[in-house]
Amino acid sequence: MKTLVIASIVFSTLLLTGCMEENKKEVNKNELEAIFPKGELGPAENFTGNAWNTPLVADDSTYNTVMGNVYFEPGARSNWHRHPSGQILIITEGVGYHQIKGQPRQTIKKGDVVKCPPNVEHWHGASPDTGMQQMYILPKTENGIVTWLQKVTDQEYNSSR
Ligand code: MN
Q: Which domain does 69 fall in, by range?
């Protein structure tokens, strides 16, 4: 009888620990793995929702290139904007959207590399349910870096066309 009681306590403890492990996994699944610090919150006039920017390579006259990392919380996105010399995005975590004006919205995910040509109006951000982490590379900064335009409306964000 004593053995049975002990066995059942051990079994219950294992079961409980197992559940807790499951919960931990569940929590981790909803958090994106961070490579870089979370950074600074992007200004509300250029972003809808929370987008966190960490500069990685500052502009200088040797490289004329700016690099950094942005973490978009679920539902967050940039305004429409243009880069005078284009932009390359490397998606390092999560799921998001990228759209060039007049083209269907693209779903982008971890491992994708997205090129946006010079002076083309576009936006990028997270999907509604999963955040998105992206490294950005802005070349030839002697031509400028970004021109910010109007907000991406909820209708534009939710339409895949
Ligand atoms: Mn861009």
A: 40-158
